[in-house]
């Protein structure tokens, strides 16, 4: 902790010497296994911050029983090389013992009701674990901005809400999802997919595309089109398909019109993937 603070202080001194009067710090929190989606966050971080800090930490608190904490891809050398190619970056890659010297924190942060829906329903306690680590990272790094990818839409919502609820002095920047040419959202977990599963995983973005096209005709058309797009893929089990009001993250009712967010989670083989898209709901 002291070391990363020292690195940031030195980088700020350096920036001041170059004439930057009030150097800003942009933090990109990651769990490593960096892909182009993460690198898009780093690119944006360079636009909003004079100093870029990337944290790499597979946070045990956000993994439930039987989830992939042990097998989650850890590729630190490749991550450092990839970051090196993007420009000067302060990398903060603490161990679990450094982050949680007394084991699980006694202090808890609850993501509230929204934290129990969708991802939170399948992954009990997941968002509480995310909020604890994000809070700790914000306190350690004290950035001006913190960047998240839109792919983790519910994470973006609960983190933004925590920042507002707790008056944390940071700006949350959200960066668009980066996709493969066939539409699959980039995710570190895509590396779990075998060849057939990789082809089948295209269903998630196909569901969102179908939802987007049908949204203008209303919620029933949207759901019917999205469900139809999810059919006929034996390797894919749809876990949820939900349409929420982006302001509350609660499911929209039949009378809702305007900007809505469609979220999908599916198991492709044994891999659980998520995706989401904003649509205009008419009807
Ligand atoms: O999105 C992630 O990779 C993680 O949830 C985060 C924000 C780095 C917290 O561990």
TrEMBL record:
It is found in: Cytoplasm. It comes from the Bacteria. Its EC number is 6.3.2.1. The active site is at 38 (proton donor). GO terms for biological process: pantothenate biosynthetic process. The keyword DNA-binding does not apply. GO terms for cellular component: cytosol. ATP binds at residues 31-38, 149-152, 178, 186-189. It catalyses: (R)-pantoate + beta-alanine + ATP = (R)-pantothenate + AMP + diphosphate + H(+). Pathway: Cofactor biosynthesis; (R)-pantothenate biosynthesis; (R)-pantothenate from (R)-pantoate and beta-alanine: step 1/1. One of its GO terms (molecular function) is ATP binding. It is an enzyme of class 6 (ligase). Keywords: ATP-binding, Cytoplasm, Ligase, Nucleotide-binding, Pantothenate biosynthesis. The keyword Lyase does not apply. PANTHER family: CYTIDYLATE KINASE/PANTOATE-BETA-ALANINE LIGASE (PTHR21299), PANTOATE--BETA-ALANINE LIGASE (PTHR21299:SF1). NCBIfam families: cyt_tran_rel (TIGR00125), panC (TIGR00018). Homodimer. Belongs to the pantothenate synthetase family. This is Pantothenate synthetase. It comes from Subtercola vilae. The lineage of its organism: Bacteria, Bacillati, Actinomycetota, Actinomycetes, Micrococcales. The gene is panC.
């Amino acid at each position: 902790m002291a070391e990363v603070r020292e690195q940031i202080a030195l980088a700020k001194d350096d920036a001041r010497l170059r004439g930057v009067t009030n150097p800003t710090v942009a933090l990109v929190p990651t769990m490593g296994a960096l892909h182009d989606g993460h690198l898009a966050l780093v690119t944006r971080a360079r636009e909003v911050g004079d100093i870029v800090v990337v944290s790499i930490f597979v946070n045990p608190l956000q993994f439930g029983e039987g989830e992939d904490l042990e097998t989650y891809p850890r590729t630190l050398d490749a991550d450092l090389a990839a970051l090196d190619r993007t420009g000067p970056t302060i990398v903060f890659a603490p161990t679990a013992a450094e982050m949680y010297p007394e084991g699980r924190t006694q202090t808890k942060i609850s993501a509230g009701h929204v934290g129990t829906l969708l991802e939170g329903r399948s992954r009990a306690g997941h968002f509480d674990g995310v909020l604890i680590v994000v809070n700790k990272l914000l306190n350690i790094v004290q950035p001006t901005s913190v960047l998240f990818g839109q792919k983790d839409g519910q994470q973006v919502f609960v983190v933004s809400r925590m920042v507002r609820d707790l008056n944390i002095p940071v700006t949350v920047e959200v960066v668009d999802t980066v996709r493969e040419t066939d539409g699959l959202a980039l995710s570190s977990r895509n590396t779990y997919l075998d060849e057939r599963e990789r082809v089948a995983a295209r269903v998630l973005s196909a569901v969102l595309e179908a939802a987007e096209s049908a949204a203008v005709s209303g919620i029933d058309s949207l759901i019917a089109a999205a469900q139809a797009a999810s059919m006929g893929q034996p390797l894919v089990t749809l876990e949820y398909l939900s349409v929420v009001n982006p302001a509350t993250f609660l499911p929209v009712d039949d009378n809702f019109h305007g900007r809505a967010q469609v979220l999908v989670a599916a198991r492709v083989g044994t891999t659980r993937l998520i995706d989401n898209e904003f649509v205009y709901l008419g009807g």
